[in-house]
Design goal:
It is built from twelve helices and 19 strands. The chain is an alpha/beta fold. The longest helix has 30 residues.
Length: 398
């Protein structure tokens, strides 16, 4: 802790996965947290997400790894198929050898379940105070403290502030002031009950069907009683970032020429949610003084490497280690945190964009893609994933 015996305080703006994880990381260093969420209640929307070994390393560091494991489905493989001819392109085993190599499992989980796994720990923490229905509009620093103001004119003061408020981060607008990059890629998400899932596709793995300018992903949730279905395509429209209800007719219009085996899934959902996606160009700083960013507010990314939530969890665990390493000097801890998180998350953002190109290849590029992993051993796959899945809290400040 710092030289003072007074309990330090922090404001965390945003009650999603990253915000809750950040709050937990700070209280584990003895810092009292006010958590400000603009929604009327703390919760999560969406369907399934994937958790790599790096995410479980972070969850373990935050003390919620076992709880999350209890709600996750552990996969046997990661599979990529060609959506045009239904041929297998790559299969990565995620069993015992994978766990031994990376120190943790690969799993899939409903977004609400991973959020709840962290929320339960947060709710038990006496150092965390919730404020819902709190939309932050302003940020001010005076050197000694920070102050944020909400839409009702209420003011909150603390020793530091963390912006965990997503792609449209108000805190980022004040600290960085850059624009989001709308990708033009649209993501549809749905959950399908097991009995409505084609039996041949009830596979215990995230399966990605890579098609021309589009792809589909499916994997089990909640003990295999449900299946997550995600479809992505390059939109013909001029998109603006946002979420709304979707239509099956729009989805079907983008998946012409796709093999009947994956195409049959498009008729299964009874409702869809439509995301027009955005990310941001990596920047050299996330904050100044007693303020910084975390999760999507710091490094929003597209879904092609399934690392958005994983990176937010890594952020939170790293932040806690930085506060500890700096003996509670929060401005110093924030700059140390940024110095290691900005390069790593930038690599993931750029790698994710490239994976989107690979997944959506067509013509000759599709042929090249399908040859990339031919005859590769599992150890060769693991070697190429070491930089991502080999993250550990013990060396996160290196």
């Amino acid at each position: 802790m710092s030289n003072s015996t007074r309990t330090q305080t922090a404001i965390v703006v945003g009650g999603g996965i990253g915000g809750l994880a950040a709050a937990l990381a700070l209280t584990r260093q003895g810092i009292a947290v006010q958590l400000l969420e603009q929604a009327s209640h703390i919760g999560e929307i969406g369907a399934g997400i994937q958790l790599g070994p790096n995410a479980f390393a972070a969850l373990d560091a935050l003390g919620v790894g076992q709880t999350a494991r209890g709600r996750a489905v552990f996969t046997d493989h990661i599979i990529m198929m060609d959506a045009v001819d239904a041929q297998e392109v790559v299969r990565i085993d995620t069993g015992e050898a994978f766990r031994q190599r990376f120190g943790g499992p690969y799993a899939v989980i409903h977004r609400a379940d991973i959020h709840l796994s962290i929320l339960e720990a947060v709710q038990r923490d006496p150092l965390i105070q919730f404020h819902t229905s709190t939309q932050i509009t302003g940020l001010r620093q005076d050197g000694a403290q920070v102050e944020v103001q909400d839409a009702q004119g209420r003011r909150y003061r603390a020793d530091a502030v963390l912006g965990c408020d997503g792609v449209k981060s108000v805190i980022r607008d004040h600290l960085v002031g850059d624009a989001a990059r709308v990708t033009g890629h649209v993501v549809y998400r749905a959950v399908v009950e097991r009995d409505n899932m084609p039996e041949e596709l009830r596979i215990n793995a995230p399966v990605l069907w890579a098609g021309p300018r589009c792809h589909l992903v499916h994997y089990p949730l909640r003990g295999g009683q449900q299946y997550n279905l995600v479809v992505t395509f390059h939109s013909r429209e001029q998109e603006e970032w946002g979420v709304r209800d979707g239509s099956k007719e729009e989805v079907l219009s983008y998946f012409q020429g796709v093999h009947p085996r994956p195409h049959q899934m498009l008729d299964r959902p009874t409702s869809w949610r439509r995301w027009a996606t955005a990310d941001r160009e990596p920047v050299e700083r996330w904050g100044e003084g007693r303020a910084t960013l975390l999760g999507d507010a710091a490094h929003p990314m597209t879904q092609y490497m399934a690392q958005g939530a994983c990176m937010a969890l890594e952020d939170a665990a790293t932040l806690g280690q930085a506060v500890k390493a700096c003996d509670g000097d929060l401005p110093a801890a924030f700059r140390l945190y940024e110095s290691v998180r900005i390069p790593r998350s930038a690599r993931v953002v750029w790698s994710t964009r490239e994976m989107g190109r690979i997944y959506h290849a067509q013509g000759v590029e599709r042929q090249v893609r399908n040859s990339l992993w031919k005859d590769k051993t599992q150890e060769q796959f693991y070697d190429r994933l070491q930089w991502l899945y080999g993250w550990k809290v013990e060396n996160c400040l290196a």
